[in-house]
Amino acid sequence: MTTFTALLVEKDSAGKFTRSIVERDIGSLPDGDVLIDVKYSSLNFKDALSATGNPGVSRNFPHTPGIDAAGVVLESSDSRFQPGFEVLVTGYDLGMNTSGGFGQRIRVPGDWVVKLDSLSMRDSMIIGTAGLTAALCIEKLIHMGLEKDGADVLVTGASGGVGSFAVALLSHLGYTVTAVSGKPEQVKFLKGLGAREVLTREQFMEGAAKPMLKERWAGVVDSVGGEMLFAAIKSLRYGASAAACGLVASMEIPATVLPFILRNVNLLGIDSVELPIAKKQEIWQKLGNAWRPESLEQLVQEIPLSKVSSAIDTILKGQMVGRGLVVL
Ligand code: NDP
Predict the structure, then answer these.
(1) pTM of the model as a whole
(2) Side-chain-facing half-sphere of 4: CA atoms under 13 Å
(3) Most ligand 1 atoms within 8 A of CB, residue of 224, 247, 319, 326 to mutate
(4) Which residues line ligand 1 (CB under 6 A)?
(5) What is the Cβ-side half-sphere exposure of residue 28, based on CA atoms within 13 angstroms?
(6) Is residue 86 a contact partner of residue 114, using CB atoms and an 8 Å limit?
(7) Where are the domains of the chain?
(8) Is 12 helix (H, G, I), strand (E, B) or coil?
(9) Please, are residues 260 and 195 in contact by the beta-carbon 8 Å criterion?
(10) How far is the CA of 161 from the centre of ligand 1 (A)?
(11) Distance 248 CA to ligand 1 centre (A)
């Protein structure tokens, strides 16, 4: 087979971006060590930015987005990966300016590839970049001293990809989770993942304009940014940390130094994209074993390739719930 089916984003002469399902030539893929038959991908907020021409994500069109892919090696010039191996790729340039997981074939450098052993291809993509990122936030919080005993951990953007996986994983690991969500209809979903309490965004932000707030959280996983992130920082317990990984509300943080100098708190930065491959492998090992939440199937919404375009509109409106598993 010399062609494969893919979602293609094109830019017309008026600068408008259109999306369609097309047959692409394998020869159009970039050079690389490993050719992969993609079975699953997942939908992340960044894919929606790529598909709508955000120049901070993708600059070269026509383009197939998809920052995540799991599949079977077809051809490899890298001796670490034999044809038939089940593998995954997340991040680096995949789906940004390198043709991504919303197509049935990708060709990538061997240094981007993780061999799957304890996780199935499907489960790895239910987790995907969002889950990897949530796991990195939690790992860093633990590294900074987050302990389980009575530890209340806050998760913002809780019904989204990063947020819902963070709720599931924190609860699996024995933490007490408070979720903040803009979707009151998802309280049952979030409690089903293990959240003890679910606050609306309004409840969470009530009175949050004060310079400092009551000490409450032993840790924070934030994928939202903006005012909510600073409100969370102001209510961290003495010496606790907030892990910031996203900006769906804002990339700005309207902050003062007060919580940092009065309560000794920490703001931790999280990146899952350029993370060295050895560290990615280590986290995927954990996610396939002790860090694999039993509620994984509760997170998933299956999206056939033909429905990815409408799912992109949903995630851009902040209406995504859980993890979108793209089936190729
Ligand atoms: P999703 O769209 O799946 O989830 C985001 C959630 O945030 C929404 O479902 C919603 O949840 C909440 N939300 C949306 N808009 C607002 C708003 N204006 N104010 C407050 N909350 C809002 O996205 P992802 O989980 O895929 O990604 C989340 C963020 O994390 C993105 O900014 C993404 O770029 C970033 N990210 C960063 C990575 C890294 O390596 N640093 C890797 C992966 C993602 P609810 O309705 O429940 O409040």
Answers:
(1) 0.97
(2) 24
(3) 224
(4) 44-46, 129-130, 133, 157-163, 181-183, 201, 223-224, 228, 245-249, 270-273, 315, 318, 320
(5) 19
(6) no
(7) 3-116+299-327, 128-269
(8) coil
(9) no
(10) 7
(11) 5
Q: Residues 246-299: pLDDT tens digits?
A: 999 999 999 999 999 999 999 999 999 999 999 999 999 999 999 999 999 999
Give the C-alpha distances (Å, rounded to integers) separating 18 from 14, 29, 61, 99, 255.
11, 20, 10, 16, 39
* CATH T-level topology, domain 3-116+299-327: Quinone Oxidoreductase; Chain A, domain 1 (3.90.180)
What are the angstrom distances between the C-alpha of 109 and each of 31, 93, 132, 163, 315?
Answer: 8, 10, 20, 30, 29
Residue with tokens 């024995």: 174
What separation in Å is there between the alpha carbon of 264 and the centre of ligand 1? 27
Token readout for 99 is 């043709």
Distance, in Å, from the CA atom of 31 to the CA atom of 271, rounded to the nearest integer, reads 26
What is the C-alpha to C-alpha distance for residues 39 and 135, in angstroms, rounded to an integer? 23
Determine the 3-state secondary structure of 211 from DSSP.
coil
For residue 149, count CB atoms less than 10 angstroms from its CB and return exposed for 0-12, middle for 13-18, buried for 19 or more: exposed
Identify the CATH class of 128-269: alpha beta
Beta-sheet strands, E only, within 77-222:
86-90, 105-108, 113-115, 152-155, 176-181, 195-200, 217-222
Of all residues in the chain, the percent with pLDDT exceeding 70 is 100
Mean of pLDDT values over 144-157:
91
The residue contributing the CA closest to ligand 1 atom 46 is 182
Identify the bridge partners of residue 120 per DSSP, sorted by sequence position: none
- Is 1's pLDDT higher than 80? no
Hey, what are 152's tokens?
């209340």
Of residues 223 and 1, which shows the higher confidence score? 223
Of the candidates 216, 213, 215, 241, the one whose C-alpha atom is nearest the C-alpha of residue 227 is: 213
